[in-house]
Structures are given as C-alpha cells and as structure tokens.
C-alpha cells in the first residue's frame, strides 16, 4: 500500500524567511551588544571624552560608573541564552537610556558636531527596537 505525501511549497519559503530573520536578529543584536558594551567600558574607564560629555550636560562624573555598569550588564543579558524576562528589561533599559541620553543633550544644547550627540544614541535606540522586534520565539515572554 502506498501513501502519497503532500508537501506544501510554501514551507520552504517560510523556513528561508525564518532563517533570514534569525540572521537579521543576530546581526542587529550583535552590533547593538558590541556597541553598548564598548560604550559602557569607555564610561567605566572614563575614556574618549566621556568626562567632558557628562560635564557638558550637567551630570556628575560618577554617573559614568552607573551607566557603564548597566550598559555592560544589559549587553550581556541580550546575548546569553534563556531568561526572556531579563531580555525584555534589558531592551527597555537600553531604550530609555539611549532616548534619555539624546534628550539630555538636546535640553543642554549640546548637539555635538553635525548633531552626533543626538544621532548616535537614537541610532542605538533604533538598533534596540530592531533587535527586540526580530527576536525569536525563544526570547519572547
């Protein structure tokens, strides 16, 4: 007795698109995690003009330590497997951190060259949104 097995041709397309989404997710998330980690380390070590940057907007220098620790921990939370609730909190924290940074510079009239002090944190916020939107089911609540 022979059985006919029907294969849906769209299955291949769905698998391919899912693979593309995973590649996009890891590309965006890897870039975000690397950028946030390097930024956090720079703040912890007070490198690259970070001290002048926070002084220009009226924050105390010790805020660099707080921001640096949270950034590094947030980047680690995005990369490690499991812990979907922690990942949600990390995404929320990174979003508020980056939009808060951009707004702090706007309110202090500290735009930087070509608006760099506003554009860079908003770019990181956009990467964060993309990472959150592309996350696989295993990383969702």
SSE order and pairing:
Blueprint: H1 10-44, H2 50-56, H3 63-79, H4 84-107, H5 116-134
Helix pairs in contact: 1-3, 1-5, 3-4, 4-5
Quick synopsis:
Helices cover 72% and strands 0% of the residues.
Description:
By secondary structure, the protein is an all-alpha fold. The chain has one domain. Helices cover 72% and strands 0% of the residues. The chain is built from 5 helices and no strands. Helix 1 runs antiparallel to helix 3 (63-79) and helix 4 packs antiparallel against helix 5. The longest helix is centred in the N-terminal third of the chain and has 35 residues, at 10-44. The radius of gyration is 20 Å and the shape is elongated. The protein starts with 9 loop residues before the first helix and ends in a 7-residue tail after the last helix.
The secondary structure category is mainly alpha
SSE topology string: HHHHH
Estimate the helix proportion, in percent. Answer: over 70%
Number of helices: 5
Number of strands: 0
- Rg from alpha-carbon coordinates: 20 Å
Judging from the principal axes of the Cα atoms, what is the shape?
elongated
| Beta-strand fraction estimate | under 5%
Mean pLDDT: 90
Low-pLDDT runs of 5+ residues are none
How many domains? The number is 1
- Amino- and carboxy-terminal Cα gap: 46 Å
Structure keywords:
141 residues, elongated, 72% helix, single chain, 5 helices, mainly alpha, 0% strand
